Batch of 2 targets.
Target 1
Amino acid sequence: MRIAVILLLGALAIASGAVLKKSGETPEEEEIRADQRLKEINQELARRKNINTVAAWAYASNITDDNLKSMNEVSVETAKYLKELASELKEFRVKDFKSEDLKRQIKKLSKLGYSALSSEKYKEILDAITAMESNYAKVKLCSYKDPKKCDLSLEPEITEILIKSRDPEELKYYWKQWYDKAGTPTRENFNKYIELSKEAAKLDGFQSSAESWLDEYEDETFEEQLESIFQQIRPLYEQLHAYVRFKLREKYGGEEVPEKGPIPMHLLGNMWGQTWGEVASILVPFPDKKILDVTEEMVKQGYTPTSMFQKGDEFFQSLNMTKLPDSFWKNSILEKPEDGRELVCHASAWDFYDQDDVRIKQCTRVTMDQFFTAHHELGHIQYYLQYQHLPTVYREGANPGFHEAVGDVLSLSVSSPKHLEKVGLLKDFKFDEEAQINQMLNLALDKMAFLPFAYTIDKYRWGVFRGEIQPSDYNCKFWELRSQYGGIEPPVTRSESDFDPPAKYHVSADVEYLRYLVSFIIQFQFHQAVCEKAGQFVPNDPEKTLLNCDIYQSTAAGNAFKEMLQLGSSKPWPDAMELLTGQRKMDASALIEYFRPLSEWLQKKNKELGAYVGWEKSTKCVKN
């Protein structure tokens, strides 16, 4: 929900109070005064963030026009305070300060984002983003079987069809409708958004919004690191891609799936081709092997949404981490309310910037996947609890990807057969080599397939922000990147009369996407580090693999993890990563090690099948 994101960014505001220069004040005296002022700022910052979060929670848990209006009003108001804060802090001669901590706090508080714009233009960019997001939310599609029935929403109807249908014409029909309606109508608002975001970035001291976004990663070589990561993972990704394309070609025939070209994305079980796990039944190498699924056992044992989170709480306590406060159980929404109100059901964790006020909002169902999601969301909550002692400006992840990675690291342990057996949910499961290949492939269809998608979503936007991609090329450049990095293409030919990028929510809603890519890489670095500390992983030991590592009940792993989380963003993220892993850069080696048995199996299998590895350039977007 982008409005909430803007609102929370807008919360970096304080009651105005000019910094008064004092004649004859020495640099040392000024630094002491700045230190005292920042203590006041952080107190006020916590208060305002709490107000903003309360407003966002009210809207997300009860979608009404009044709650939306209240939330937007808070956002506009706090944007004004942001400018006052930045103006005030510029009066300090920060470069002369000795304290790196003071310099860091002032730099973080001085970044304005869209609040650098005038109040009128701030409202314009908010309106443009809201209009794109609203268009996305309101799209209705017509039924393939009954074209006069035009009330189908992406969630749940179209999503379920994409998962279940194996009729390529039906899938193509819904794909085209969605992109035509969710993307193309937003071009005018997108252009306004790009224009104003460029202006805001320059006012904030950046060349473009690309540099503003990348500044959150505090490393001038970060783009180069990402390209290096893709060189690391490309061989494994190409093997996975080759196998999936071959199996889809077996299923749908050569007319639907080319032998050497990109994969038509409508056949991958997902509107954006970002994850491929929904078509695993077509792809699983050993279909006779039992697939890991404890949903039935959970139901049999009487699991409820609340008991699922209680299990998660117990998991963290076993690591010597913090027990969930009573207020969590009192204030969270753990299942869909029965009072008929509309709410955002997407699972989310919330920090209210008040002592121990942390919550989750999730319309939880009793399934294995939701069990893992509960642990993921509790990972965010644990992060909030571990850094809540810090000044408010530091109460966030070390970089935007850290929060997502922390949640996923716990999910990797919880989803292991070893853990599910330990908590009594898995019985008589033989985790032999074939079962392991099945499980790794299932995971790779989500984790590996996602990486090029996540990269291209923001690589495309960086190009637009920087003016490297011109409006006349907006659509075809997008598909060119999807083909170049992911070997994916649209099922029908597109042109510059179409405009497809905003058919992905995060583009319509102006949500930076690189955080998800970063999290998918560093979670494996974190996973390997904590598994080693728990004595659960030893290289080349078939009994102690990353795939079947479970850090449950390891205080050594928990204490090491906790030490990193307690830093929040008080130090540059390489410092936080080094504390846990000994590494200062993102590296895909741990991910590659996790999937090494699958990689070896895919290489042999693709040779055996004669599957073509790599892909030819897509021709599915043409200039008008």
Note: The radius of gyration is 25 Å.
Target 2
Amino acid sequence: MTVSGAREVLDGTALLCWGRTCLAGLEHRREEINALNVFPVPDADTGTNLLATMRAAVEAGEAAAARATTGASAAHAVAVAMAHGATTGARGNSGIILSQVLRGVAEAVDGGPFTADSLRVALARASELVREALSVPIEGTILTVLDRASAAAAGCPDQALAGVALAAADGAAEALGDTPFQLGVLREAGVVDAGARGLVVLLDSLVTMTRGEAPARPEYPRPPAVRSTSAGDAEPQYEVMYLLADSDESRVAALRARLGELGDSVAVVGDGGGCWSAHVHCADAGAAVEAGIAAGTLSRIRVENVAYGSHRDVWSGHRATGEHHRDGGAVTRSDPNFAARACDARTWPTRAGDSAISAPAADSTQVVVGALGSAAARPPGTPADRGVLAVVAGAGAAALFEDAGAVVLAGDEPVTATTLLAAIRRMPNREVLVLPNGALPAHELVAVGVAARDAHRDVLLLPSASMVQGLAALAVHDRGRIAVDDAFAMSEAAATTRWGALRAATERALTMVGTCEPGDGLGLAGHDVVVIERDVRTAGRTLLDRLLAFGGELVTLLIGAAAPEGLGDELAAHIALRFPGVEVIVYSGGQQGDSVQIGVE
């Protein structure tokens, strides 16, 4: 491969070009790298993971390049963005390590463009970061090859970037050839390390950029046969990954140690800007997620089955970041003992568990998460050992949920993921259905659902974004059904309940329908302000007109503690006048914040 316009100093544009060259090289070698992978598990996706991680880095770099000015500052901005993109988009252990190579580059170009000395610093720093990140460094892997590349760059007398890049790449290629002699599993399979092969591709891409042509490398032997594990004999093993924020070095170190107790292939790395990515292979995915919850705020949680020779997404979740892979996650169940589902409120689990049924959505940020192992095996007609846990604010609302058979977790004060997890674990039931009622964001519910699952309890978190949706779900709860059917019916009831709320504005603020002043009545459809009126009573009438314009048979009014006297009766009378035939039920909820919660079924 020959590239015109070889460079000796890389500015921001050139660094981005190097990233794109890496992408092309990884795409070309992806199947080769996938075939080489036998360590730490024979999962055949190292090349794919490296490609996905580099793609995330390049996309972030392109966004930074569009905003940056020219010169040294642009090089630094692009490099930092690529490091952050790789950290947040890392796939697999190999992707985690790649992110640290890019972080090394970012730190090396802090004061200027990328030069020969920058490359030396970058490789040395990357080697240091990777060793710090791994709980148990294993020689004969990408770790060793990165060390050798760094040593070769440091020992190169050439002061030109092209010469140092070639020395580093050649050192890495030589070390790659030695990996079978350092790691027994590679020697037995007759292959070199897959992740290290990917690192050589990255360094060769830099040589291509700086010299104008790619160095020649041998074709590395592939395993003679695909190694597989019998699903009947294999011990469950999962790859768990997530992003961590709102943490610090001491808590990250404690997380790394805890993950080391739970499994192997542990790596917890940072982008240098307060974001960390964690990776572990373990048998207890829930415990790994719980360890992350204790260390900070989790997002983009991924659990993949690696015990059966196939790496398939089990679920993923993330906070809003500008990237959308169907918020709340996409799920494929890969074994009968770990059926975790995360989906938006438009999609509900079916009896099979691997497909979805569409339903009208009332809120698209909630999730359904669960483990439905033994529940389906219960003999027909046998009542399930199943309980419902609901997060509820207000004494009146709590009484409603309790009368309907739910266990109530008080939500008058903010509920945390830890609080909800503890409440689930206090439930004595084999099967637990959880109505979060909008208490936590989707990514935290995903984390809680996986952490709560264990060999003795199946847990489903249902998509109720408000208490009125939770009441609608609870009305169709039937312990006589199997768990997945009960969850489907309750989820559908919640999803088909349009909901809104009335509040009094406490300060001047800009909303999607204009600016409100203190004392104004606000009408919300879901979480969005859609009505601003002079008072809550007027806002309530206008909001009901809009909610019922789409039809409805039953309206539930849950009256809050701050509601004006007689508001419930006034709104009920308005419905009877404007929408004859629509049934109205008024409850005293006693919740703070919302003067009224409104549900339309």
Note: Residues 1-5, 226-234, 308-382 have pLDDT under 50 and may be disordered.
